[in-house]
């Protein structure tokens, strides 16, 4: 089946790769070969350039975001390849968000790349970089208005859509040039594979990124590629359930803790924009307790939420965010909500908050 872009995302997640390789296997094979015999019909030569399992995954991810996908060994590998390829003089980006994105821009300073504030003037060849929703507080940025501004200046708009996934947000349709996801999170969905992807609206940009990837070498391994392909089949089911669970927990927690950050709540600064820009408020929420001591104690008191970094897997995780990000507020915890029964998640939080005290 050639990719039929009139199909809806849940169908594309299962079938967009159907015509990529000739096989009667219903489950995609894992190709582990690093090299291909001369004269290969499909034009395959060497796995750093291209290989069949990756072709399938890229067909699916490209279809889900409505562009051309190029996958990488991690989100960070994708972000640095994007910056190296685009070689902007300025990257306009808001403070906060995923801290290592700023570190990647900083690491590329010797290439003449400089971080500037999001609203700073940009020019031809520059990059406007949005992370929306933003890690860990889920604040939103207006994709369509930044796309118009970038286009008018001859700059490019890159959107890190890791928290929303293509299920809840379509940055390319809103005018972005490039969408970036850490595949490690919701796309893989089971906390068992590292990866990253860039999806370009323009095929020539995707080809350029692919050529850069061949040089920088950060391709995902065969097993990881296959795991993400397997995980992405259920992306819509998982993200919708996780979003419903997070929305219920946000309402429950708002009555019990000092502050809840989730776009479902009218108190969240992105509440109205989320209704316009997203198809749901998303599966991540953050809470602030009354004290740092209570925030440090809560992860150990929880029984279902595991005390671990990362997000997007089927199991619920909680993290005292300062452990990873030194700029995070001291009493802030990030909850990456999984697909467990929401009654059990709510019960776990109620009991643990009672135990540690200091919610407000
Ligand atoms: C929003 C966001 N973008 C990018 C990344 C980096 O992805 P990776 O860990 O796959 O390198 C992360 C990782 O936590 C993230 O949360």
Quick structural gist:
This protein is an alpha/beta fold.
Question: What are the defining features of this structure?
Answer:
alpha/beta; Aspartate Aminotransferase, domain 2; Aspartate Aminotransferase, domain 1; 2 domains; 7-stranded mixed sheet; 37% helix; 14% strand; binds pyridoxal-5'-phosphate
Q: In the CATH hierarchy, what is the superfamily of the largest domain?
A: Type I PLP-dependent aspartate aminotransferase-like (Major domain)
The main β sheet shows up as: 7 strands, mixed
Instruction: Estimate the strand proportion.
Output: 5-15%
**What is the spatial order of strands in the main beta sheet?**
1-7-6-5-4-2-3
Overall number of domains:
2
């Amino acid at each position: 089946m050639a990719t039929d872009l009139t199909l809806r995302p849940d169908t594309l997640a299962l079938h967009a790769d159907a015509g990529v390789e000739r096989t009667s296997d219903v489950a995609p094979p894992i190709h582990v070969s690093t090299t291909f015999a001369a004269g290969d019909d499909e034009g395959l030569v060497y796995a750093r350039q291209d290989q069949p399992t990756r072709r399938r995954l890229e067909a699916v991810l490209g279809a889900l975001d409505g562009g051309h996908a190029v996958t990488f060994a991690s989100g960070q590998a994708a972000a640095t390849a994007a910056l190296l390829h685009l070689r902007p003089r300025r990257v306009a980006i808001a403070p906060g968000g995923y801290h290592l994105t700023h570190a990647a821009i900083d690491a590329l300073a010797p290439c003449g790349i400089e971080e500037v504030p999001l609203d700073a003037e940009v020019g031809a060849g520059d990059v406007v970089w949005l992370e929306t929703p933003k890690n860990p507080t889920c604040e939103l940025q207006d994709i369509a208005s930044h796309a118009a501004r970038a286009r008018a200046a001859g700059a490019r708009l890159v959107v890190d859509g890791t928290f929303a996934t293509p299920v809840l947000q379509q940055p390319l349709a809103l005018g972005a040039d490039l969408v970036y996801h850490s595949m490690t999170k919701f796309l893989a969905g089971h906390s068992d594979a590292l990866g990253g992807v860039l999806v370009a609206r323009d095929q020539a940009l995707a080809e350029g990124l692919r050529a850069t990837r061949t040089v920088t070498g950060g391709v995902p391994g065969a097993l990881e590629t296959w795991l993400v392909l397997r995980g992405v089949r259920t992306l819509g089911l998982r993200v919708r359930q996780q979003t419903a669970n997070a929305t219920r927990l946000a309402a429950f927690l708002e009555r019990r803790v000092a502050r809840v950050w989730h776009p479902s709540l009218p108190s969240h600064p992105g509440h109205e924009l989320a209704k316009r820009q997203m198809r749901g408020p998303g599966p991540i929420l953050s809470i602030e307790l009354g004290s740092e001591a209570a925030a440090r104690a809560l992860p150990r008191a929880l029984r279902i939420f595991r005390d671990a970094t990362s997000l997007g897997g089927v199991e619920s995780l909680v993290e005292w965010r300062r452990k990873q990000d030194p700029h995070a507020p001291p009493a802030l915890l990030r909850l990456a909500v999984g697909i467990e029964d929401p009654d059990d998640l709510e019960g776990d939080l109620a009991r643990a908050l009672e135990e540690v005290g200091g919610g407000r």
